[in-house]
Amino acid sequence: MNLGSPDSTSVSDVRKYLNEFLMDGRVIDMPYLWRTALVKGIISPFRAPKSAEAYHSIWTKDGSPLVHLTYQARQLLQQRIDAPIEVAMRYGTPSMQAAYDSLIAKFPDIEEVILLPLYPHYAMSSYETAVVHARDVHKKGRYRFALRCVPAFYNDPVFINALADSIKPHLDGKSHLLFSYHSIPERHIHKSDVTGSHCLKTPGCCTTPSPAHKYCYRHQCYATTQLVIKRLGLSEGQYSVSFQSKLGRSAWLTPATTARMQQMPAEGIKDLLVVCPSFVSDCLETLEEVAIREKENFIVAGGNSYTFIPCMNTQKQWIDAMVHLLSTATDLPATIQ
Asked: Cα(106)–Cα(123) distance, rounded to whole angstroms?
C-alpha cells in the first residue's frame, strides 16, 4: 500500500483526491465539522489549482509517477515470490477494497494477506492511517482471510543497506548530504507518545531510550539518518537533517527544508545532495517540491550545485529489501486505535 495520487492532473480530480486525503482524521486531526469547513471550504478550493499545476509538471505518459513506480516494483517483486501481489493506495485508486476483492476473485480460498505499507517510519498520518484503513476495510467486508502487517522498517538493516546503496553513487567527497524527511505537526508527535511525557518534552528525547520511540516519527527519522551515515562512513558536518512539505500555520517539525535551502549557501555549503528517506517511490513531494522548487531556492540563495537523489523506486536492493520485509510481518498492532 502506497499513498496514492489523483487520477489525472485536472483540477476536479486533484480536488477530489485532496478532499479524501485531507479529510482523513489522522492527517488533519480536528473535529469533523471543523475539518470539513477547513478542507472543503478553504484548503481544497485554493490548493487544488496549484496542486494540479504541480502534478502536471511531473506527470508522465504512464500517469502518476508514484502509482506507476509502485506497479513496476510490484512486477519485480512478483518475480521473486510465488504469492499473488496486489497494489492498493490509501487515497485514490486502486482502493484497498479493490485489492482485497481482486485477491478473492483469483484465489477464493486464500487464508492470509500480508500488508506492506510503503512507509519506513511510523506516523499517525502515514503508516498508522494505512494500517487502520486496511483493517477497517477488512472488517467491514467480512473477509475470511487473516490480515497481518509488516511493521515500520526505519531501522531494519536490509532497508538501511538498500537506502545507503542508493545514495553512495552520488557521493563526491565535496557535497553536503541533506536528509529531507516529510514533516508532521508537533501535536502528532505528542499524540503518538505512549508515555505522555517524553517526546519533545525532555532534552535529547530522540536519543534517550524510551518506549515512546516505537511510535515516534521524529526519533525514527534521526535513527534512519544515523544508521545510513554510519553505513556510508560520513562524519559530522558532512550531512544534516530537515523536514519538508509543511501545511498550515501550526508548529511542525523543524528545521524546515525550505529555510535550510536559503541558509546553507551563507554557511558555506555550496554543493548539495538531497535524499528523501520518507519515501520509497518518487512522487509530487520529491519530484516537484524537492527536485525542482527547492533546487531553485538553493541556487537563488547562492548555491553552486544541487543534486536530487531519486527514491529507491525499482532498484534491485529495494526489491531485495521488500522480499525480506515480508518475512517480518506480524499480527496487526493492538496499540493502533
From this structure: 33
Query: 35-75: per-residue pLDDT in tens?
Result: 999 999 999 999 999 999 999 999 999 999 999 999 999 99
Report yes or no: 212 and 195 within 8 Å, Cβ to Cβ. yes
Return all residues near 97 (Cβ < 8 A) that are at least 6 apart: 137, 141
CB atoms under 10 Å from CB of 72, counted, come to: 15
Residues 157-308, CATH architecture: 3-Layer(aba) Sandwich (3.40)
Are the CB atoms for 246 and 125 separated by under 8 Å?
no
The three-class DSSP label of residue 149 is: strand
Q: Whole-angstrom Cα distance, residue 254 to residue 240? A: 12
State the pTM of this model. 0.96
CATH number, span 65-152+317-331:
3.40.50.1400
Q: Is there a contact between 251 and 186 (Cβ–Cβ < 8 Å)?
A: yes
How many C-beta atoms surround the C-beta of residue 105 within 10 A?
8
Give the count of beta carbons closer than 10 Å to the beta carbon of residue 41.
10
Contacts of 243 (CB under 8 A, 6+ apart): 180, 181, 182, 183, 184, 221, 252, 253, 254, 255, 256, 257
User: Strands 176-182, 271-275: parallel, antiparallel or unpaired by DSSP?
Assistant: parallel
